[in-house]
Amino acid sequence: MSWQFAPQPILMDDEVVQKAVDEQISQDQAGRIARNEVSTLYLDFKYILKIEHLWDFTSLTKINLNNNLIERIRGLDNLVNLKWLNLSFNRIEKIEGLETLQKLEVLNLTTNRISVIENIYHLEKLTHFYISNNLLEQLDNVLSLKKVKKLGALNLSGNPLSKKDDYKLFIAAFFPNLTCFDYKLISAETKKEASIKYSSDVEKMRKEELQKQQADDAEQSRKEELQLHMDAFVEFLNGSNLFKSMFKDDPEAETLRSVTEVADLLQRFEQQMVELCEQLLEIGLAEHKQREAEVNSFLSGRTKVLTDYKKEAWHKLEEFEQEQHQRMVELQLISDSDKLQVKISHCVDSINKFSNSQMSLELKLSSQLDDLIKELDINISDMVSSFTDNAKGIFAQCRDLEDNYHQDMQDIASATLEKVASGSVEEDMSGDVRWLFRDKNMVMDALATGHNNHLQKIDDRETEMVARVNAWKVSLIKGIQDTELKRNRTSISHNLKYKEEWLEQLGEFQWQDL
Question: What span, in angstroms and rounded, lies between the C-alpha atoms of 194 and 176?
């Protein structure tokens, strides 16, 4: 009796990967190539347990990992140019690890253990998706593939859901752009039949998708608007946000609102506050646009200065290297020791002269950039000062409105206190109001507390706005200065290193002479 043993599972180590590379190269070309130049890799039928050692294969466009023992999709992050991925006939239970494969066009997950289609909707270039012979049961889950707009070929055969009635008509109806389904072309007759049978369902889904898209667009617009307002330091100044925040923690606000004349007074106060806030909002957005234009102007000027510097530096470098290489050739032809030393001395002088000229050029560049930064600092500081002055002026008007409101409330409260004391209050006055106006000190203390809270909210918003815009200015200028300092140090370091390399070459001639 003879026994047959199943091959043993293996780890996908560096040796296994290199062997696959060597086999592929022997088929396609002679010699060895770097891993980051390999475009195709076959690792099928290897009994691999885990995907590993692929981080160097950044140029890979096609990889076959089918017929292995792989349980999880991972280790593919660096394969950013991958277009074809075959993971069929493995033991995969979950679709994952495909986040960086933005160029993927063909994905084969046939004969695995997958029960849910997920984590592939970002694959915008995917045209072929094979997931037959898995554990998919829900047709609704398949509908999520509608987000993959370029999908033209789909295979779902062999899944539990493929046994459902009208399964093929259902897919044909909801995926009108599919040309191939379960390895067969979808005929025009099938598409027509599917369209008729599921017309109402498709229309319902279309409307739902449209509504969702509109809601998503509105939410995105809201987020973009909020971000713009935050960048301009005027977020939540559109509408009644500041006004409502003033009364949010006012314990007696709702009680006082039911007093005659208070509702109208509050409405007028709110309207006036909203007008001032929206005025500040418009100023903030306009000032932000000006600051942004100033920064862009600086960046444009900086780019021009750097470009001009690089052109001049490269021109001098080319001239120097051409002359220096010629000098090095001449050195090799000199046999006389004294003449050689003289020539070496001349070469050293040339190297020092070139290095000094590059240093001078760098000093000139640094001075130009420093002037640009100083000009930006002055202009931005003026803009920030203008914005904060305008903001402080408007917040001062807000405080004046609050003072006027407080005075009017005191007048209304005094009149109401007299009515309560004389018993001539309106019949519809609530019990809470009657209770509050039993005691003059209680009423006036409530108004004073509210007044202080309102002013504090205004002060806090002003303080926060001024602090943030000034912090932004400091951070902006410091960031630019730090970037320039780093560039300057790097340039000087490169220049010194370049000089040392040439001097070392000359030193070799001296040793040879000895």
Answer: 9
CA–CA gap between residue 113 and residue 93 (Å, rounded): 5
Q: What gap in Å lies between CA 17 and CA 54, rounded to an integer? A: 8
- 184 has which bridge partners? 181
Is 60 exceeded by the pLDDT of residue 427? no
Per-residue pLDDT tens digits for 149-165: 999 999 999 999 999 88
DSSP state of 10: B
* pLDDT tens digits for range 94-144: 999 999 999 999 999 999 999 999 999 899 999 999 999 999 999 989 998
Question: Which one, of 305, 323, 325, lies nearest residue 313 by Cα?
Answer: 305
Crossing angle of helices 167-174/199-231, nearest 10°? 40
Could you count the other beta carbons within 10 Å of the beta carbon of residue 405? 21
DSSP code for 113 = -
Q: Chain-centre distance of CA 265, in angstroms?
A: 46
Name the 3-class secondary structure at 229.
helix
pLDDT for res 4: 47
* pLDDT confidence tier of residue 1, bands split at 50, 70 and 90: very low
- Listed in sequence order, the residues at least 6 apart from 73 whose beta carbon sits closer than 8 Å to its beta carbon are 51, 87, 92, 94, 95, 96, 97, 98
| Residues β-bridged to residue 130 | 108, 155
DSSP calls for 479-495: HHHHHHHHHHHHHHHHH
Tell me, what amino acid is at 403? D
Give the Cα separation of 355 and 462 in Å (integer). Answer: 54
User: In angstroms, rounded to a whole number, what is the distance separating the alpha carbons of residues 429 and 427?
Assistant: 6
The structure tokens listed for 363 are: 């000093």
Query: DSSP strand E in 347-452: where?
Result: none
C-alpha span between 50 and 71 (Å, rounded): 7
Nearest by Cα to 43 from 29, 54, 58, 27: 54
* pLDDT at position 341: 85
Q: What's the rounded Cα separation, in Å, for the pair 155 and 115?
A: 15
* Burial degree of 444 (CB within 10 A; 0-12, 13-18, 19+): middle
Separation between Cα atoms, residue 444 and residue 237, nearest integer Å: 30
- 345: closest CA among 355, 333, 357, 353? 353
> Do you know the residue count of the chain?
514
Distance (Å, rounded) from C-alpha 170 to C-alpha 202? 10
Tell me the whole-structure pTM to 2 decimals: 0.72
Identify the residue whose tokens are 């973009």.
224
Strands 40-42 and 180-181: unpaired
